């Protein structure tokens, strides 16, 4: 479990697994933790027919914002999986609140286990989760195995801006990876920079407020909470200046 926890905390910009028990408190004011449900709903409506019959797998679903809104808007069946039990409890609560408990199924589990077992979906969704599923190539392979022939993958990720060095693949490298894995790019939606900045500013205010509350409660862990906030701010700067955030709709050729 140690390696999985390290990948988890890294995907949420943390630097130590000691932070994990505090993540539900730090993120309690945020429902949409990653992908934009509106963008994903729009991509599906535009490119896929008979949406109410779709069977969707939402890996690293967080608090279920994408899963619940997909079920509500499209009438499809969604299976959401995340490793944090508190997130799953919140997702189930929101499914009832939105009147879609019969369309949404949620469980707490390591998504590597889920990806190895789940099969036969029309669509699999994976938000920006770093290397939780391994390298980009490994992640694509695992996602591809969960869907039918002709099924779809929706990835919310990013590529490096031209001339900016960093850890992100370039757009050309991503496209080559898709080609090598027998995946067809159907549509690409870039995140609007002004909307990204506004969302980051709003979310960071919530996170900083909760971090300050935790520092008052656990003064011996002040450095850890400060480090988390600083990492969050650094990631937001990177998102707004060094990389281009994108949502891809991909189709499995065979």
Supply database-style keywords.
47% helix; alpha/beta; 10 helices; Rossmann fold; 7-stranded mixed sheet; 254 residues; single chain; globular
Layout of SSEs?
Layout: H1 2-11, H2 23-26, H3 37-47, E1 55-59, H4 65-74, E2 77-82, H5 85-97, E3 104-108, H6 111-117, E4 121-126, H7 136-145, E5 147-160, H8 171-180, E6 183-190, H9 193-217, H10 222-241, E7 243-252
Parallel strand pairs: 1-2, 1-4, 2-3, 4-5
Antiparallel strand pairs: 5-7, 6-7
| Terminal-residue CA separation | 34 Å
Low-confidence stretches: none
For the residues shown, what is the average pLDDT?
Answer: 91
User: Would you give the CATH topology of the domain at 31-192 and 244-252?
Assistant: Rossmann fold
Principal-axes geometry comes out as globular
Name the strands of the widest sheet in spatial order.
3-2-1-4-5-7-6
What's the helix-strand series?
HHHEHEHEHEHEHEHHE
Number of helices: 10
Q: Which structural class do you get from the secondary structure elements?
A: alpha/beta
Q: How many β-strand runs?
A: 7
Kindly report the name of the CATH homologous superfamily of the domain at 31-192 and 244-252. Vaccinia Virus protein VP39
Q: Oligomeric status of the shown chains?
A: single chain
| Residues in helices, as a percent range | 40-55%
CATH class of the domain at 31-192 and 244-252: Alpha Beta
Radius of gyration (Å): 18 Å
CATH architecture of the domain at 31-192 and 244-252: 3-Layer(aba) Sandwich
Strand content: 15-25%
Largest sheet: 7 strands, mixed
